[in-house]
């Protein structure tokens, strides 16, 4: 019954974009300008941008929230007449020269695909992490910061995201520990200097402690998180301190299972490999944004990827 229902609803497009983050929406804007019949499919329009309360490095805005910027992207895409479908893709496959995309309710076909699949937050995989998930262990600082008002917390990670999260948590938490496996922080000096400056009160009290060269052994507690055990990587000396929250900021994992099933080439970490035209190894399939191999994953780079991918799809179709 379900298959018959899907077949009756089959629609054909020049281009289907999988993903509704900045890369996917940017690709949709450019595809519309190239007069391509385009469908964008994905959950949560805006992607990880929705988790960012303040964006200060996107051209044209001195400061804007992630949700507000995402809404502007969405409004522009819809104004151009592009179809946006808020559904999860169940299956994607190549049939002859076309691509077939199945959702829960319908089947769609296209001549080209742009994979803007995004990524998910990487987990620690240590004892206590799963047990205390949503009970003190969180992965989205902007979503959950108010939970830790006047509490001591640990942020795990040493990149820009971890340091920015620590800076943001100073608005809520009493004390912030930043635990990093590396001997030196990988965060940009600007963010690190700002964190250390704002983490010290006028009375000289230090509300931020940077703990480098340590790994997390265990997150402990009863019904809620109450402490964390860490270990010095060189000396193996263990240390435990009381915290009521653990925020994990150790990077992202690409959501590229669909790409793998389509035969798209991935690197050893699972990110999609493209050339500078956002072409994959599979003819007619392009990729953009956080799911691709790249040195910098930011909204501005995702938007650039999306524009290039749409242009490449247009050029590919011109040759058919």
Quick overview of this protein structure:
The protein has 320 residues and is α/β, with parallel strands linked by helices. 26% of the residues lie in helices and 27% in strands.
Structural summary, described in words:
The protein is an alpha/beta fold and 320 residues long. The protein has 2 domains: 2-120 and 252-318, 3-Layer(bba) Sandwich (FAD/NAD(P)-binding domain), CATH 3.50.50.60; 137-248, FAD/NAD(P)-binding domain (3-Layer(bba) Sandwich). Helices cover 26% and strands 27% of the residues. The chain is built from 8 helices and 17 strands. It has helices at 2-8, 22-33, 66-79, 141-144, 160-169, 189-198, 257-261, 299-318; strands at residues 11-18, 38-41, 83-85, 89-95, 98-103, 107-115, 119-121, 137-138, 152-156, 175-179, 208-211, 214-221, 225-232, 238-242, 245-248, 252-254, 285-287. The strands form 4 sheets. Strands 1, 2, 3, 4, 5, 6 and 17 form a 7-stranded mixed beta sheet that branches. β5 and β6 form a beta hairpin. α2 packs parallel to α3 (66-79). The chain is elongated. The relative contact order is 0.18.
SSE topology sketch:
Elements: H1 2-8, E1 11-18, H2 22-33, E2 38-41, H3 66-79, E3 83-85, E4 89-95, E5 98-103, E6 107-115, E7 119-121, E8 137-138, H4 141-144, E9 152-156, H5 160-169, E10 175-179, H6 189-198, E11 208-211, E12 214-221, E13 225-232, E14 238-242, E15 245-248, E16 252-254, H7 257-261, E17 285-287, H8 299-318
Helix pairs in contact: 2-3, 2-8, 5-6
């Amino acid at each position: 019954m379900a298959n018959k229902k899907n077949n009756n609803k089959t629609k054909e497009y020049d281009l289907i974009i999988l993903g509704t983050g900045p890369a996917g929406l940017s690709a949709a804007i450019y595809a519309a300008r190239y007069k391509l019949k385009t469908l964008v499919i994905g959950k949560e329009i805006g992607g990880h941008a929705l988790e960012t309360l303040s964006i200060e490095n996107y051209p044209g805005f001195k400061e804007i929230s992630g949700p507000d910027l995402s809404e502007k992207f969405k409004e522009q895409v819809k104004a151009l007449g592009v179809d946006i479908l808020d559904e999860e893709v169940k299956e994607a496959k190549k049939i002859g020269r076309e691509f077939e995309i199945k959702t829960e309710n319908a089947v769609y076909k296209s001549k080209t695909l742009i994979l803007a699949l995004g990524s998910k937050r990487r987990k620690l995989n240590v004892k206590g992490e799963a047990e205390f998930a949503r009970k003190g262990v969180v992965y989205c600082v902007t979503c959950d910061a108010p939970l830790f008002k006047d509490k001591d917390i640990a942020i795990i990670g040493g990149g820009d995201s971890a340091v920015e999260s620590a800076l943001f948590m100073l608005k809520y938490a009493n004390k912030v520990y930043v635990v990093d496996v590396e001997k030196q922080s990988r965060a940009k000096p600007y963010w690190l200097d700002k964190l250390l400056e704002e983490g010290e009160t006028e009375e000289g009290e230090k509300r931020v402690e940077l703990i480098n060269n340590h790994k997390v052994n265990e997150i402990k507690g009863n019904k809620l998180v109450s402490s964390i055990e860490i270990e010095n990587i060189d000396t193996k000396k263990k240390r435990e301190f009381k915290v009521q929250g653990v925020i994990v900021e150790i990077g992202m994992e690409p959501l590229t299972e669909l790409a793998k099933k389509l035969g798209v080439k991935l690197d050893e970490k699972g990110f999609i490999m493209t050339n500078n035209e956002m072409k994959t190894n599979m003819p007619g399939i392009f990729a953009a944004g956080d799911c691709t191999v790249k040195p910098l994953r930011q909204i501005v780079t995702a938007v650039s990827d999306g524009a290039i991918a749409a242009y490449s799809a247009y050029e590919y179709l011109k040759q058919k």
